[in-house]
Amino acid sequence: MKGLKPESLWNFFYGLNQIPRESKHEKGAIEWIASVAKKLGLPYKIDKVGNIVVSKPASKGKEKATPVVLQGHVDMVCEKNAGVIHDFSKDPIELVRDGEYIRAAGTTLGADNGIGVAAALSVLADKSLIHPPLEALFTIDEETGLTGAVSLEPGFVQGKILLNCDSEEDGVLFVGCAGGKNTEVTFDIDWQKAPVGLQAVAVKITGLRGGHSGLEIHQGHANAVKELNRVIWKAAEKLKFSLFYIDGGTKHNAIPRDAEYRLLIDKKSADIFKQFVADSENILKNEFKQIEPNLKLSVEVIPNYPENVFSPEFQNRLLNFLYAIPHGVRKMSPDIPGLVETSTNAAIVHTQDNQISLLTSQRSSVASEIVEIADKVKAIGLLAGGKVKQDAGYPAWAPNMQSKILSLMKSTHKDLFGKEPDVQAIHAGLECGIIGEKCEGMDMISFGPTLKAVHSPDERAEIATVEKFWQLLLEVLKRIE
């Protein structure tokens, strides 16, 4: 981290990345933040689910200014490239300087939202800063269910302005976000005895970009589950084979990067099948030539011969279901140019014991459209004979263009950098929507440095924008009355 500015922020980020903090496993990170607060002599409290808030008195002369909550989440999405040896339960994240960026060594970086957490800790640690009464709220499990924000008790924080530091685009202030929910469809597998004398093969799609299923859903990245199922569905029209395992995707909020189907096929048909897959790879490469340059389909013989395979009726029903499930942008916003209004992500398909499940996630800035697209997935699942489970979801954050903190942030940005920032809503779930429901009347805004390819091993933070983010944060705190 030598030579990076602000030095304190990058040092805190480095320290945070020495501690495993996968979603739902943030205890070590929370304890580390508590230890930082103790060293600084600042009071803190931890709630029943593990959220922590650290308080810092106003600087001299700012005691009567509006109290502020700095907010970020401590958990991170844990993804790694194929072949990378990394145990997210114990290994630190290795930081790599790559020109204008900081990235990790084949894993996600955790800049989402580690940079925001580090910025808040830096504010707490610096006694020279001018600021109003502060609370730094660090929440858990944002990435896999927003559990921390959902579980906040009224009164846990007292501030009237929320500065959410969990956005990923320099020069942009976010004043609204999508709501969403998850829909899971589960099937009981109808097994039959595996025929003898066939060849067991694994068909894989790898090398896809993946990415955040909200922020990058409009970029047309290939969905590994959908595209591999498309290939197998088409092959089933021409050849006879028996599936016995399918798997793809790892995170509900990431576009699947790879997938695998395993099947038994007659040895005489195996060469035809391999050629069909090779031809399919050429088709997909042509369709995604500017988007997925590393797309690869492969077929390999595997030694593990199954005792059972899917029945023909179940296999047909499953392939049709996965083909019919929608994925991608469903509607663009008629009010905000370029903003996705509604989308759905076919996120994870998994075979476990005697069941196959597909987890999907739906997002929209319009509450009724979340229900509509989630119910469409539900209806397809029910038609295919699946059991459907939907969670309660989380609310959207409606923009307030008359917000006082928005006005102050715009003018401050212009004074510092010579131009007003863009003001946008975001097609992702920020904790602001939930916190706003729990803290009535709170004035909220979200901002941050430029982060690219979050939720994927290509995640990286643009160094120069981290310093700009820090400058904006300090100047806004100084100007809040």
Would you kindly provide a written description of the structure presented here, covering whatever features stand out?
The chain has 481 residues and is of the alpha+beta class. Helix content is 31%, strand content 27%.
How would you summarize this macromolecular structure in one to three sentences?
The protein is an alpha+beta fold and 481 residues long. The chain has helices spanning 7-16, 27-40, 111-125, 147-150, 224-238, 267-287, 312-324, 367-383, 404-417, 432-438, 463-479; strands spanning 44-46, 52-56, 68-73, 95-98, 101-104, 134-139, 161-164, 172-177, 179-188, 191-193, 199-206, 241-248, 259-265, 296-301, 308-310, 328-332, 340-352, 355-364, 387-390, 422-426, 443-446, 451-452, 460-462.
Features:
23 strands; six-stranded mixed sheet; elongated; 31% helix; 2 domains; 11 helices; Alpha-Beta Plaits; nine-stranded antiparallel sheet; Aminopeptidase; single chain; alpha+beta; 481 residues
Question: Into which percentage range does the β-strand content fall?
Answer: 25-35%
CATH architecture of the largest domain: 3-Layer(aba) Sandwich
Name the shape in a single word: elongated
Superfamily at the CATH H level of the largest domain? Zn peptidases
Mean pLDDT: 96
| Main sheet record | 9 strands, antiparallel
Cα-based radius of gyration, to the nearest Å: 24 Å
CATH class membership of the largest domain: Alpha Beta
Model regions low in confidence, pLDDT < 50 over at least 5 residues: none
Number of strands: 23
